[in-house]
């Protein structure tokens, strides 16, 4: 969004068009900025009372004189946990892409995926295809979070198995998480990336998600110059992340480069 159309000299139609395009981009950028600021402010404002509420409830739960009170307090504590997750996720959503490129580093996608799969104790059978040397530039913490959200969902909505694949594809790095669950109907494949969307409310809420996981995942993909989509796959769902590849050093390339 921060790129502008080059402004040609003079006052002809092209010059006017360029000026209008750039003014529109300015307004858009300001709107995006205000939106981020709102989410960030809202999260900060919500955090303080939640922290107070939690402290009080924990205190009350430690002194349970009657069992009805105890149940009420427990339920309020669960609500507090939930509020806290939502606020934390909103805050993360507001911050993605605001740090510039300073936090970026070269990342071996297969190594990152292998570590994340290993770190999790999963009830699922996880199959991996993780070739070496697929490198991207990115913020490690964010890419771990993106993959973590996809794996959380696979765990929530899959049948029994999930496949994690890394590959080079058409000059891009590909990271795909495929499960064998109920899948996502074509009509819902864009909607699932919207904030707070849940297709199967009972199941999703019961599973403890915030409905922000895929919105966060897509925002991280975008901030890295990539895309995250649901692709055709049956049975089950397949989420494909594509990121720009960091090219290997020239001498490792298959074809000799023309001189000059
Ligand atoms: P949640 O916290 O509810 O999981 P997400 O943003 O991660 O929120 O996902 C949004 C919705 O997309 C989920 O509630 C679920 O209905 C659907 N969904 C996500 N991943 C899958 C999947 N692997 N299989 C089927 N449905 C999915």
SSE arrangement:
Layout: H1 13-62, H2 67-95, E1 105-108, H3 109-119, E2 125-129, E3 135-138, H4 140-157, E4 161-169, E5 172-179, H5 201-206, H6 213-223, E6 227-231, E7 238-244
Parallel strand pairs: 2-4
Antiparallel strand pairs: 1-3, 4-5, 5-7, 6-7
Helix pairs in contact: 1-2, 3-4, 4-6
> Beta-sheet strand percentage?
15-25%
Low-confidence stretches: none
Task: Tell me the number of strands.
Answer: 7
N-to-C series of helices and strands: HHEHEEHEEHHEE
Round the mean pLDDT to the nearest integer and report it: 86
Widest beta sheet: strand line-up: 2-4-5-7-6
Quaternary status of these chains?
single chain
Report Rg.
23 Å
Helix share, percent: 40-55%
Task: Catalogue the ligands.
Answer: adenosine-5'-diphosphate
Main sheet: strands, sense, barrel: 5 strands, mixed
The coarse silhouette is: globular
Number of helices: 6
Alpha carbon gap, first and last residue: 33 Å
| Structural class based on helices, strands and sheet pairing | alpha+beta
Protein name: histidine kinase
Enzyme class: transferase
Main location: membrane
EC number: 2.7.13.3
């Amino acid at each position: 969004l921060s790129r502008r159309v080059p402004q040609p000299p003079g006052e002809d139609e092209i010059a006017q068009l360029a000026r209008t395009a750039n003014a529109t981009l300015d307004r858009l950028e300001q709107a995006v900025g205000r939106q981020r600021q709102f989410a960030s402010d809202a999260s900060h404002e919500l955090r303080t009372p939640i922290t107070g509420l939690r402290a009080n409830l924990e205190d009350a739960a430690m002194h349970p004189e009657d069992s009805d009170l105890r149940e009420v307090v427990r339920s309020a504590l669960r609500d507090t946990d939930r509020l806290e997750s939502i606020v934390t996720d909103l805050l993360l959503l507001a911050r993605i892409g605001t740090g510039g490129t300073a936090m970026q580093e070269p990342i071996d996608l297969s190594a990152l995926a292998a570590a994340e799969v290993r770190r999790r104790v999963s009830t699922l059978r996880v199959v991996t295809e993780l070739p070496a040397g697929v490198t991207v530039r990115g913020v490690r913490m964010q890419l771990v979070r993106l993959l973590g959200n996809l794996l959380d969902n696979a765990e929530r909505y899959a049948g029994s198995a999930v496949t994690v694949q890394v590959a080079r594809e058409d000059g891009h790095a590909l990271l795909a998480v495929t499960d064998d669950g109920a899948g996502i109907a074509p009509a819902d494949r864009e909607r699932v990336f919207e904030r707070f969307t849940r297709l199967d409310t009972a199941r999703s809420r019961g599973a403890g998600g915030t409905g922000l996981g895929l919105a966060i995942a897509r925002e991280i993909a975008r901030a890295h110059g990539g895309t995250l989509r649901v692709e055709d796959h049956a049975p089950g769902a397949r989420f494909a992340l594509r990121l720009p590849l960091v090219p290997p050093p020239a001498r490792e390339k298959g074809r000799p480069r023309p001189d000059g």
